[in-house]
Amino acid sequence: MRMRQAGLAGAALAVAALAGAWQAAPALAQAGAASGTAGDVVAERKAGLKQMAGHLEAIKGILDSRGALEPVAGRATEMQRFFEGFPARFPPGSDTGDTRALPAVWSDRAGFERASANMVAALGKLRDAAAAGDAGATATAFREAGGTCGACHRNYRAR
Ligand code: HEC
């Protein structure tokens, strides 16, 4: 918790202090890096991915207990936003350090972007099914979305 607060405060400071450096490193700036270093980009994308896993877990709980589907649509929308910006969280130079991203993220960029786009599409289906209140279609779309996470991991994440 304390680290998180420090991170947010640091982000605001960094924006002010490193505006010039950001222009020199557009790829990192694009990734929304708190202080513009590769280590922060890696930490931030991993934190975001953990949140995504939390969303999936929460959605599973809702579906298992046959709860209201509206919150599922909300979570799916948040996840969609994250994955729309996903490739930008892997700028050049963020392939080292505490990361399990495989070199293919950068060497097969088109494939990685396609896998991200597939994720956005799968989450769109999930959102639509949940928003329509269709439990059966939501369950199907949920399984597909989970499979789409795994499809990318097989090719782009080290075990
Ligand atoms: C387009 C590719 C892609 C998609 C889609 C994707 N991931 Fe990942 N995921 C990765 C990569 C690459 C890593 C390794 C990131 C790193 O270590 O820098 C990763 C790592 C993770 C991690 C580990 C984070 C950590 O703390 O080390 C979790 C959890 C995760 N993904 C969950 C998910 C979930 C849940 C979904 C689906 C909703 C998903 N991912 C979809 C590529 C993807």
TrEMBL record:
Database matches in InterPro entries: Cyt_c/b562, Cyt_c_II, Cyt_c_prime
Residues the record lists as binding heme c: C149, C152, H153
Record GO terms (molecular function): electron transfer activity; heme binding; iron ion binding
Alphabetized UniProt keyword annotations: Electron transport, Heme, Iron, Metal-binding, Signal, Transport
Signal sequence residues: 1-24
PROSITE patterns registered for this protein in UniProt: CYTCII
GO biological process: electron transport chain
GO-annotated cellular components: periplasmic space
Post-translational modification: Binds 1 heme group per subunit.
Protein name: Cytochrome C
Organism from which the protein derives: Teichococcus aestuarii
